[in-house]
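Per reviewer request, we include the raw input and output of the structure prediction for the construct analysed in the revised manuscript.
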Amino acid sequence: MRHGKRGRHLNRKPSHRRSLFRNLARALFTHESIVTTTPKAKELRPFAEKLITLAKKAALVVAGASGKGEAEEKAARITALHYRRQAMALLGPTHGTGVWDKNDENPTNDTVLKKLFREIGPRYAARPGGYTRIMKQHYRRLGDAGETSIIELLKANDTKIAKQPAPAAPVVAPAPAALEAAPAAT
């Protein structure tokens, strides 16, 4: 039986896989768009979206309690701290890694966890899910010819474009002569 064995193994042991997802998630939150193989991107998506959901819940709890009184705000901060600690447990020791810009500088001294809870979580406060997008690339990776994809975080105002349903075939009405002949036959 395969109970509790969902997902791709990616030819790695569980601890190595967990480290891989932590590192990929850290890179995704830092740069908001990364290039990786398609199977890794498909497995990273639920891992990253769970972390973003924790940050979103923390932002919603704090925003919902603002202006309601000191006791409610304190309870909201405690709940938000619980969500932050859950995210720290999922990210592991990489949660304190600095966020670097394109020039390899760390001007704000922010960490991945701070960026996740201060910028990324509130960005998706009104979105019910689906915070990432995977776009397959047309060329393969050098070396092993692995299929590559770009996984990126959606922008704040991006909306999913719904596919238009195929128009239904028009119903053909019966000919008037057939309608007149039917009552006379009975």
